């Protein structure tokens, strides 16, 4: 049957699974998280003009924008990794759940930025830690896919997986550490460092297409 896992050398056929349910669950979690981010966008119940209320709550919308960009960015990476898999096993599923666990924390850390304002150092630190954790888990998933060719479609090159492995296991976590340290001196600069990484990563990804 199309989509069924095929036996591979050194791996028991009963221990292999198709990737359809894993991908469906992952897409559902990403979609729910994006929805939860929108639910945080509420205007205060004060007798002021809408423009004044929006201006007063700019930090809430900034937190939404940054979080939306982060989730979109990581979904694209996750899609690149899992779309190249024709089958998976228990380690794949465990690593994928690690990614999803970090993803589900984003509405919480984004809400802290919006509630405590970006100028509060610890709110920015927590958000940076969340992004670093998400990056690290997705880097582990990329490394797993790169090291187990029997799980991949034969026509899928390993180059993209290697790039995602190196970028998300080392480079982006390093950026989040720098951002966390910057938060105690200049929180806005810390957030800017994270946004700059998102923009540069997107630009480089577009150039490779």
Automatic annotation (TrEMBL):
Xref: InterPro entries: TMEM175-like
Keywords annotated in UniProt: Ion channel, Ion transport, Membrane, Potassium, Potassium channel, Potassium transport, Transmembrane, Transmembrane helix, Transport
Primary localisation category: membrane
Compartments in which it is found: Membrane
Spans through the membrane: 58-76, 88-110, 122-146, 167-184, 190-206
Record carries keyword ATP-binding: no
One Pfam family here: TMEM175
Membrane topology per record: Multi-pass membrane protein
Domain of life: Bacteria
Catalytic reaction list: K(+)(in) = K(+)(out)
Secretion signal span: none
Any GO CC annotation of this UniProt entry: membrane
GO terms, molecular function: potassium channel activity; proton channel activity
PANTHER family tied to this protein: ENDOSOMAL/LYSOSOMAL POTASSIUM CHANNEL TMEM175, ENDOSOMAL_LYSOSOMAL PROTON CHANNEL TMEM175
Similarity remark: Belongs to the TMEM175 family.
Record's protein name: Uncharacterized membrane protein
């Amino acid at each position: 049957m199309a989509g069924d896992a095929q036996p591979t050398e050194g791996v028991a056929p009963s221990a292999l699974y198709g990737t359809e349910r894993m991908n469906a669950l992952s897409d559902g979690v990403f979609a729910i998280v994006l929805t939860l981010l929108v639910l945080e966008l509420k205007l205060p119940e004060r007798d002021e003009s809408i423009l004044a209320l929006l201006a007063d709550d700019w930090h809430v919308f900034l937190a939404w924008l940054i979080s939306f960009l982060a989730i979109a960015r990581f979904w694209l990476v996750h899609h690149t990794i899992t779309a190249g898999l024709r089958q998976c096993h228990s380690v794949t599923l465990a690593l994928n759940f690690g990614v999803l666990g970090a993803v589900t924390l984003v509405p919480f850390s984004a809400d802290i930025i919006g509630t405590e304002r970006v100028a509060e150092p610890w709110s920015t630190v927590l958000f940076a830690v969340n992004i670093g954790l998400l990056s690290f888990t997705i880097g582990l998933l990329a490394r797993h896919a790169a090291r187990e060719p029997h799980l991949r479609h034969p026509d899928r090159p390993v180059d993209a997986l290697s790039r995602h492995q190196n970028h998300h296991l080392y480079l982006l976590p390093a950026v989040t550490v720098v951002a966390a340290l910057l938060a105690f001196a200049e929180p806005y600069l810390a957030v800017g460092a994270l946004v700059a990484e998102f923009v540069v990563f997107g630009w480089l990804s577009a150039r490779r297409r």
